[in-house]
Amino acid sequence: MIHQVKLLFFVSYILFNQYPIETTIFTCNTFASCGCSRYNVAINARIIGGEPAVNHSWGWAVSLRVLN
């Protein structure tokens, strides 16, 4: 009986202790002058740590540098 209660508590903890990830679906404004990606992309609300991108989802890159 004690073993079943511990197992039930453990399973309940695992199931109900999940944190949802908030995402935003980015859809490009085709009338903007900056251009668009080929695909609409789900963007997480946080940037820290990054995440893998969908292949060909961002066809551009930017590098800002300051020369002294």
Instruction: Write the H/E string, N to C.
Output: HEE
The amount of beta strand, in percent, is: 5-15%
How do the strands of the widest beta sheet line up side by side? 1-2
Helix content, binned percent: 10-25%
Number of helices: 1
Uncertain residue segments: none
- Rg over CA atoms, rounded to whole Å, is 21 Å
Structural class: alpha+beta
Mean of all residue-level pLDDT scores: 71
Total strands: the figure is 2
General shape? elongated
How is the main sheet built? 2 strands, antiparallel
Question: Distance between the terminal alpha carbons, to the nearest Å?
Answer: 72 Å
InterPro entries: Peptidase_S1_PA
Helix and strand topology:
Elements: H1 2-16, E1 23-26, E2 41-44
Antiparallel strand pairs: 1-2
Keywords:
22% helix; Peptidase_S1_PA; alpha+beta; elongated; 12% strand; 68 residues; two-stranded antiparallel sheet
Describe this structure in words.
The radius of gyration is 21 Å and the shape is elongated. It has a domain at 20-58. The protein is 22% helix and 12% strand. A two-stranded antiparallel sheet has the order 1-2. The protein is of the alpha+beta class and 68 residues long. It starts with a helix and ends in a 24-residue tail after the last strand. InterPro entries: Peptidase_S1_PA.
